[in-house]
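Researcher: For the annotation table, I need structure tokens for Fungal-specific transcription factor. Please keep the output clean. Sequence:
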Amino acid sequence: MPSVSSPRVRSHTPMSASPRNTERSNERTNEKRPKACAYCFRRKMKCDLAIPCSNCVEKGEDCVSVARQERPRPTHEKIEKLEAEVLRLENLLARSQASPAAGSSSYHGPQEWMPGPVQHVHHSHHSLSPHNAISPGEAARSRLRFGQYGDQSAHGPTSAFFDDLPEREQLLEDSPRTSGLDEATEKRYQSQATAMAASERHNEVLNLAAGKLELDGVAPDLAMHLLGLHWNRQHYGFMVSYRPLFTRDMACNGPYFSKLLLNAIYFSVSKFSDRPEVYDDPSNQTTAGQCFIRRIKALLGEALDRSSIPTIQAMLLLSSSLFALGQQSAAWVYSGIAIRMIIDLGLNYPMIGNLHAAEIEIRRRIVWAAFIYDKIISLYQGRAVTLGGNQMHVAHRFFDLFEEQEQWTPYAFPGVHQYPGSPACAISTFTAYCSLALIMDQVITHIYAETSVPEGPRVHLHRLSASLDRWRASLPAVINCDPGSEATAPPPHVLSLHMVYWTLVTLLHRPFVESGHLYHADPPQTSICWARCEAAANGATSLLSQYRRTFSLARAPYLISYTTYVASTIHVRIAAQRGPQSEASRLLGVCLEALSENGATNPGVQKMLGMIQALMARMGVSLNAGSVSEAQDDPLGFGLDLEAIVRSFHNRGDEMNIITGNGNVNQGDASVPGPPGPFLYDNSLDSLYGFLNFQ
């Protein structure tokens, strides 16, 4: 007979009478106690919970207990909403997998600007066999990992984290080359982001009046003055900062604000300010913002422990500002930190998740701002790009359109009183910058960083030249700019965009004039390349004159001076043959005055001015004391000795110098040591790529 178990009787013994229950009760009590004091928690150190703890005693810190807040349990309503959101995203992911080309038109990749059929460059040593190939969606998902608190990091298939990815990775977009959003979703995100920007602009005023904005000890009047300079001027350069989230979190210490970023903004715009309190020595322009640099260095150590969006933004702003001050090494290091953090967070890969439209927007803006700046600093220093076009898997389509039609007036440009104002066209300009930077990436990679034979870059010339032509032809009418127009000048960031375009035309074509053997092999092509350089120099200088008349060059961005320097290298060679009464001589004079004017606040500009003056002395070029009001305007390339121009690029009569894989420079059959550091290309005394390293 099977035994029948008797029913289990629940014990009514008080919990205090059970040692095991007493232990559990103590565990629950301990869970509510702080696990570290404020200092140990901030420094991620083990705390012994003594009062004061041993770490605080050793470091001389005030030992302050951290009160732990109870987190409310999620309600059924919230769980249902999250389940519905997951279902919606799963359906969206399934649709994108079923029709991967559905959103392809939303990505403006480099091939969009290429002539004829799209040609993909395949590198055999990077190719995957059919047995180990992975889909684009799997590749994207393999790189992003989410922590338990919503933070993210990027890892590849070889990482130990690859097999530990949580289910939430399914929220990633499947195609790394598209926005992954259908038209209705994209429009909804645009409405959300633009509406939030308008709302936060209003809240910014209210929070300032209520004293809620974190200014890090700076007087409100000075702080808002510096922030106003930033939003009116520097912000439009590469759109590194994102105002709605920055100002929102400035009032609540949210994740998109940090004191490091705030002080980076203060420092980067101090040179535009006339306030004596931002100068250590008001008589010395180079001391602007030094008090903020000291504060930045105090904040920097802790900020580098963990990748974050505000730290990335701060590093990019610091890099740009320090380079203009001549601190090239620091600028390179800070930009490298920013890009490392971008890759660490996987910001160069698309994701949707539970992010608000504005949070997707800030990620897109940051990664593209870094991509643009990476190309600029590569040109300055002659170093290989750090963030290549093949690493960009995020569409440069932006949701927040608030600053597109916002009226822009030159608040940050002292002495400009008659400018009528203009729509900012910020998003159109930034989007065009992104497309131009993709072409710039290829020019640097295929023309200046080529490590094979000198003929290698020739195969890319026609393709990239056509890409530049198509880029300009496809610009929206609102940001189109005719160099010879007498109309009111557009905002300075629009002028800068077009000046960079003309500079890139010169960067592409000038190497094919510098290389003497190419001239002898194909004189007509060399002649065409020189004509393109001459047209580009004229176009850039016309825009420079317009910029100077309207806004002044006294505190213009460093990039304006670089475009001026590049144009000068063309003007000086034409002036050497056509004389001091020529149009080239007049344009050269305009460039020299611009470099001199801008050199007062940007010490790095003085190097460029000195290089052009040295080139003038070597070529015997002198300018008239007075300006040339009616100079002869000859057709492009007319009457010029092209062989003499080719010879003028070579200090020792050498050919186009290509750095080989072992760091040496090829000069015919000889091999001589190359310049120090990872500089890939050397050409002449007035080098365009890495010009600061060849003086």
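Researcher: And a one-line annotation?
Model: The chain has a mean pLDDT of 78.
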